[in-house]
Write a structure and sequence with these properties.
There is one protein chain. The chain has 2 domains: 8-168, D-amino Acid Aminotransferase, Chain A, domain 1 (2-Layer Sandwich); 179-345, Alpha-Beta Barrel (D-amino Acid Aminotransferase, Chain A, domain 2), CATH 3.20.10. Helices cover 23% and strands 29% of the residues. It has helices at residues 64-68, 91-104, 112-125, 201-205, 208-216, 262-273, 285-293, 332-345, and strands at 8-9, 34-41, 45-53, 71-73, 76-80, 86-89, 137-146, 158-168, 179-183, 221-225, 233-236, 239-245, 248-252, 279-281, 297-304, 308-317, 320-323, 355-357. The chain is α+β, with helices and mostly antiparallel strands. The longest helix is centred in the first third of the chain and has 14 residues, at 91-104. The protein is built from 8 helices and 18 strands. Bound molecules: 2-OXO-4-methylpentanoic acid.
Length: 360
């Protein structure tokens, strides 16, 4: 639905203290002074756009999100370049995906231009919170959740859209150090026809026990197989996954249960632009392990907004474990990390037109 972008500013009495330059930020732990809010009521539509003080919410204990999980989110970042200007990376794609998630979860969609304008206004308000140290950014979390208090298991009639901001460092404390991965053969993350392609809380909730058990076995994350045959490679942790096999980059083809990552898409487009296109494939786990065992898989890495690129150093399936050694000078993962962050922070020319400036 087309909306008029008229945003009310509700100031706070006192601003928070910002982190000191060089302080360890962690990920998603510190929040800025303000958030953007927009309400939805059936029959009235989205209304009451405002920037208001970041503060705890007051929710009805029967709030339908708490009982039935009708909620979706996005993840994106604002980057401060060496020129001090604040940039966004392909933000329209995030709001388009938010609407895809909304449709799947029975949530009303947003006008993408209104959401973008809200985001730009909020980032300009909070520009001083965008950190400047290398590898840091302002993590942006837009989300929509049911606010109606009712225990009937049906789609809610009231929702809220919020955007909150968190100055953050690297997602993994280990940065670009390769992580160890356990290939999950018991639990599944998603099935075709389910919600795997939507960025909805349930997909993350179902992954947590598996992550806990993998960590108990000494691995950092899990690699997900398809939910029907538990045979085809889908994702790694909360990221998309790429392999270099016989020198060629490949990634699982989107199939309805894989999240269509914006970093995944950017890696595919960048590789094509650089004349080394990746193939989208259906990759059988037994075949993958055979290729890995015989040295034909030279790299495995995850892609996602939060960590950007995360190299995998060890892959275990059942009793078998295969290791990969990374030489930063030779590795595609490291080069892609450098290329993508180079574009995001303005160290590299933005040849594909992905960057949008938010501050002059
Ligand atoms: C990302 O890779 O950006 C994610 O989706 C992780 C997020 C859940 C923190």
């Amino acid at each position: 639905m087309k909306q008029q972008a008229s945003i009310t500013m509700i100031p706070r009495a006192e601003l928070k203290a910002k982190p000191q330059a060089g302080a360890k930020l962690g990920f998603g732990q510190i929040f800025t002074d303000y958030l953007f809010a927009l309400d939805y009521v059936e029959g009235k539509g989205w209304h009451d756009a405002r920037i208001e003080p970041y503060a705890p919410l007051s929710l009805d204990p029967a709030c339908m999100t708490l009982h039935y999980g009708q909620t979706i989110f996005e993840g994106m970042k604002a980057y401060r370049g060496e020129d001090d200007r604040v940039r966004l990376f392909r933000p329209r794609l995030n709001f388009e995906r938010l609407n895809v998630s909304a449709k799947r979860m029975g949530i009303p969609t947003l006008d993408v231009d209104l959401a973008l304008e809200a985001l730009r206004t909020l980032i300009r308000t909070e520009a001083d919170w965008v950190p400047a140290e290398p590898g840091t950014s302002l993590y942006i979390r837009p989300f929509i959740f049911a606010t109606e208090g009712s225990l009937g298991a049906r789609s809610a009639r009231q929702f809220r859209f919020l955007i909150i901001l968190s100055p953050s460092g690297a997602y993994y404390a280990s940065g670009l150090d390769p992580v160890s991965i356990f290939i999950e053969d018991e639990y599944v993350r998603a099935v075709r026809g389910g919600t795997g392609f939507a960025k909805t809380a349930a997909n993350y909730a179902v992954s947590l026990l598996s992550q806990i058990e993998a960590q108990e076995r000494g691995y950092e994350q899990v690699l997900w197989l398809d939910g029907v045959e538990r045979r085809y490679i889908e994702e790694v942790g909360s990221m998309n996954v790429f392999f270099v096999i016989d020198g060629e980059p490949v990634t699982p083809a989107l199939n309805g249960s894989i999240l269509p990552g914006i970093t995944r898409r950017s890696v595919l487009e960048l590789l094509k632009h650089q004349g080394r296109p990746a193939r989208e494939v259906h990759l059988d786990v037994d075949k993958l392990m055979e290729l890995a065992r015989t040295g034909r898989v030279t790299e495995v890495f995850g892609t996602g907004t939060a960590a950007v690129i995360s190299p995998v150093g060890r892959l275990a399936y059942g009793e078998e474990s295969v290791s990969f050694t990374y030489d930063p000078a030779q590795s595609l993962a490291y080069r892609l990390y450098d290329d993508l962050t180079g574009i995001q922070y303005g160290r590299r020319p933005d040849e594909l037109g992905w960057v949008e400036f938010v501050t002059p």
